[in-house]
Design goal:
The chain has 2 domains: 197 residues, no CATH class; 138 residues, Rossmann fold. 41% of the residues lie in helices and 16% in strands. The chain contains 14 helices and 13 strands. The strands form 3 sheets. The chain has a 5-stranded mixed beta sheet. It has a 5-stranded parallel beta sheet with strand order 10-9-11-12-13. Strands 6-8-7 form a 3-stranded antiparallel beta sheet. A hairpin with a 6-residue loop joins strand 1 and strand 2. Helix 4 crosses helix 7, helix 4 packs across helix 8 and helix 9 runs parallel beside helix 14. The longest helix is centred in the first third of the chain and has 15 residues. The chain binds zinc ion.
Length: 336
């Protein structure tokens, strides 16, 4: 996103929590305190406004958007939001612990208790009339606890607080810090994090390494995403590398947490080769896809020719989705 909003005075079209919505001709660029940044067409926003996402679906949709930053929503792919799987109770607990370990990476780092608690009064934002909300509370800092709702796919503050109190504090993964208002990750917590960061043989996530040019959007939405989902896994795509051309820690961590990687080599980008190579080095299976034309033009790096590609053509997305889920089930199996 190119803008750096300071006041979150609008509402997210998906979850209705505070957001900034910048109108760009045919679509809005939304930065939501919970869902994160995404774009949505005007038509899709109208459809969403008319439809009735249940609180559960809203929570799962926010979770999906946070997993897939800068996703573009239109009327064609809105249904993906309704189908987003969300997390079970234990996954919510581990998701919160992992998110905390990213923000507070050193042993003994102090976590301000309030930074984890979604202030209940802010929930009145959902019901407040336009302009009826105290402006000084609508900054990113004061609203940052909302992101944990999306990270944990929690419906509301009560559910998030349950995860915090029971899963993290009672089970001893977080413990009181040296001063009253603070918490810290305990030794047990760090052990669990280390365990989770081991290669994801038990994981239900699948990392997608693919080009992000608009031409490839249908490949993601109509083929790779549904194909992986049909085989029982949660697709994870992190596209920031496309913008800053570097492999960041989050990508490395996401690959490590995945059961396998789907890599599309149609544009033979260095980053994609790196991500696939990293996965292979960890012993994770990689399912390769490539556009017919790239294969015909001999554009795919030679060393990869020995692998058995799922070849696709523009428009043949349903077919690719089917072949992909079959390949996953046949070579990797459904999640345990
Ligand atoms: Zn939102």
């Amino acid at each position: 996103m190119k803008f750096e909003p300071t006041m979150y005075t609008e509402r997210c079209p998906v979850c209705q929590l505070p957001s900034v919505n910048a109108f760009k001709g045919a679509h809005f660029e939304v930065d939501c305190v919970s869902c994160g940044p995404f774009t949505i067409t005007k038509e899709a926003q109208i459809v969403l406004g008319q439809g009735k996402l249940s609180p559960e679906q809203k929570a799962n949709a926010s979770w999906f958007l946070r997993l897939n930053p800068e996703h573009s929503l239109d009327t064609q792919n809105l249904a993906m939001l309704n189908r987003a799987r969300g997390l079970d109770v234990n996954e919510k607990g581990t998701a919160l612990l992992l998110a905390l370990s990213k923000r507070y990476p050193r042993a003994g780092d102090l976590i301000l208790y309030n930074s984890l608690v979604v202030l209940p009064k802010l929930f009145k934002f959902r019901d407040a009339q336009e302009g009826g909300y105290p402006q000084n509370l609508l900054t990113k800092d004061s609203l940052s606890p909302f992101e944990f709702l999306a990270i944990c796919a929690c419906r509301d503050a009560l559910e998030l607080n349950w995860v915090l109190q029971n899963w993290l504090l009672k089970c001893g993964y977080l413990e009181p810090g040296p001063a009253d208002a603070f918490l810290q990750i305990s030794l047990e917590g760090w052990r669990l994090i280390a365990e989770m960061q081991k290669v994801g043989v038990e994981s239900r996530s699948a990392f997608i390494a693919m080009p992000f040019a608009p031409r490839f959007t249908p490949l993601f939405e109509l083929a790779l995403y549904p194909g992986i989902e049909r085989a029982g896994y949660t697709p994870v795509r992190i596209d920031r590398a496309e913008h800053n051309n570097r492999i960041d820690d989050e990508i490395i961590a996401a690959i490590r947490r995945s059961r396998f990687v789907v890599a599309d080599l149609s544009l033979h980008r260095g980053g994609i080769y790196f991500e696939a190579g990293y996965a292979l080095g960890l012993g994770l299976p990689v399912v390769w896809t490539v556009e017919q034309s790239a294969l015909d033009n001999n554009e795919v790096h030679f060393d990869n020719r020995q692998y058995n590609f799922l070849v696709w053509k523009e428009g043949g997305y349903d077919d690719l989705a089917k072949r992909l889920s079959n390949r996953i089930e046949a070579t990797i199996g459904r999640p345990r």
